[in-house]
Amino acid sequence: MDDPETDRENRRWVRDLAAAGPVREAACRELYPLLLRIAKSEARRRAPVLELDGPELEDIAHQAAADALMAIGERLDRFRGEARFTTWASKFVIFNVATKMNRHFWRRHEVPYDQEDWSRITSRFDVGPDDEAQAREFAAAVSTAVEENLSERQRIVFVATVLNGMPMDVLADELGSTHNALYKVLFDARKKLRAALVASGYLPAAPQMTARNSTPLSDGSSA
């Protein structure tokens, strides 16, 4: 930071939150109300779309602020001082509000994550069938590819996140897994499905790298 006062303030936050005992507790008591104000503001902004209000909204804000405070303390080494510490910290609470409100929306509406409506798949694969018959044919092909090529775990994750649009962190809670673990499952599932749909002629093959358009190596030779 170019501002010496802001730089000093940033160093104070990092130093005090990294300390132990009363110093850290005092810093947390100072930071928490700021995080809570941001959480309440963000929750109110999102409330109309997600149909949340009253005590439920207040509870989300408090949970988001508390979780953000913990995450900030665990990631102090990632703060580079390129912005105000409080600006950097606010991103954690905004993320937590979004995550918690998405979870509440899905749980309140009781959307089954394994519900299979394959008619919606054409929009997920960026294809544009010319007519309804083609759309039905493509949906059936994807359904068949899922049944024939994916493991049960891959099918569940694919259906929930790609077909039904469930947020990955919400599904991770439902399955007792982690965000990163499910991303790996989904990556492998999509790779298998694309290969199957390419082989059956429903998706175009990815362009092959040739000697003419290959990426040069650092020594000037080509791949």
From TrEMBL:
Listed under GO cellular component are:
DNA-directed RNA polymerase complex
Q: Name one GO molecular function term.
A: sigma factor activity
Q: Could you list this entry's UniProt keywords, alphabetically sorted.
A: DNA-binding, DNA-directed RNA polymerase, Sigma factor, Transcription, Transcription regulation
- Tell me which Gene Ontology terms the entry assigns under biological process: DNA-templated transcription initiation
Q: Which domain of life is it from?
A: Bacteria
Q: Which InterPro entries match?
A: RNA_pol_sigma-70-like (IPR039425), RNA_pol_sigma-70_dom (IPR014284), RNA_pol_sigma_r2 (IPR013325), RNA_pol_sigma_r3/r4-like (IPR013324), WH-like_DNA-bd_sf (IPR036388)
**Record bears the keyword Transport:** no
Keyword check for ATP-binding:
no
Q: Which family does the entry's similarity section mention?
A: Belongs to the sigma-70 factor family. ECF subfamily.
| Entry-linked NCBIfam families | sigma70-ECF
User: What's the protein name?
Assistant: DNA-directed RNA polymerase sigma-70 factor
Q: Which organism is it from?
A: Planotetraspora kaengkrachanensis
